[in-house]
Amino acid sequence: MLGEKTKPTLEVQNLTKIFSSGVFIRDKVTAVNDVSFNMYPGTVLSLIGESGSGKTTIGRMILKLLKPTSGHIYYLGKDTSLIKTKAELREYYRHVQGIFQDPFSSFNPLFRVDRVFDMIFDVFLPEVKNREERINEVLHSVNLNPERIMHQFPHQLSGGQLQRLLIARALLLDVKILVADELISMLDASTRMGVLNLLVDLCKEKGMSVLFITHDLALGYYISDYTMIMHRGRLVEKGATEKVYKNPVHPYTQMLFNSVPDIGHRWDKNEKFVPEKVNDDIQRFYQDNRGQGFQYLEPDHGVLLSVE
Ligand SMILES: Nc1ncnc2c1ncn2[C@@H]1O[C@H](COP(=O)(O)OP(=O)(O)OP(=O)(O)O)[C@@H](O)[C@H]1O
Ligand SMILES: [Mg+2]
């Protein structure tokens, strides 16, 4: 992928997650299968795929909320599986944060906004003296009025305000990697654009790297420098957004793009949108390209040509 000159902030190598469920018969689900990618400073990387393809599982492994079955995640060259002590974890979370689909669940309903910020300072930034100044600064940068919101409880704020608050929190912590999982899916169209533009601006300004998880191809195109397409736990295509969108090669990517009649269309997450035919197409594609595995067909554009 692009950015060979710049060092990646985060490297994901051969990441696999197998879930076992069932009490008597152990059912195994390979949620993430041999996934590798890099994240570079000041770039947005989107991760696109159908429901259940493993997107959130990748995000949760980066955030150390789940342990990989195999594979590695390196943050600034350091293997994150070696981060063990509380102090090391705290340091990691100063720089690696997540924003999830439901902003309400990210806040304790009993804590007012000022208390939330106090806790961030107590836990992560005890050395900072000018707390109020810093808070005002980050709230202003996400277009929130400190006087109006500091004494509110989470339920008194809108979804858009809460998500902007989460972005403000990330800014306060000087986040280098932000996992934004379905960040804006519950916002109305106008708020959505505001939050998105804010995110992109901050990403470029601060050299932050964003993993933008979404179902929405149009949104992915709008926001991201790089795109990864995920199908059943595997990355089937990845590269510079322009190249992947202009010249999709994997049958699954082609099907996805064909199922969007025009930019701006958004499909229903619960709708079964994968036509049966695509699975046959994928099998044939892998057969025809047997033995080739993942290949770069042009610079910054790679495709999974076969699975062995
Ligand atoms: N804790 C868990 N235990 C068992 N299976 C799980 C667990 N978490 C996820 N899975 C399974 O792993 C697969 C991938 O789930 P994941 O949540 O990563 O998908 P997703 O791409 O984020 O989907 P969506 O777009 O619906 O959010 C699914 O088959 C899911 O059922
Ligand atoms: Mg998910």
The number of helices is 11
- Total domain units: 1
- What's the CATH first level? Alpha Beta
Unique bound compounds? adenosine-5'-triphosphate, magnesium ion
Could you list the spans in which at least 5 consecutive residues all have pLDDT below 50? none
Q: Termini separation (Å)?
A: 23 Å
The rounded Rg comes to 20 Å
Topology-level CATH name: Rossmann fold
Coarse structural class: alpha/beta
CATH architecture: 3-Layer(aba) Sandwich
Helix content: 25-40%
Average residue-wise pLDDT: 87
List descriptors:
308 residues; alpha/beta; Rossmann fold; eight-stranded mixed β-sheet; four-stranded antiparallel β-sheet; 11 helices; globular; binds adenosine-5'-triphosphate; binds magnesium ion
Structure, described:
There is one protein chain. The protein is globular, with a radius of gyration of 20 Å. The protein has an eight-stranded mixed β-sheet with strand order 6-7-8-3-9-10-12-11, sandwiched between helices. The chain has a four-stranded antiparallel β-sheet with strand order 2-1-4-5, with helices on one face. The model has no long low-confidence stretch (mean pLDDT 87). It has one domain: Rossmann fold, CATH 3.40.50.300. The protein has 308 residues and is of the alpha/beta class. α4 crosses α6 and α6 packs parallel to α7. β1 and β2 form a beta hairpin. The site of magnesium ion has 2 residues, from α1. The site of adenosine-5'-triphosphate (ATP) has 12 residues, from β1, β2 and α1.
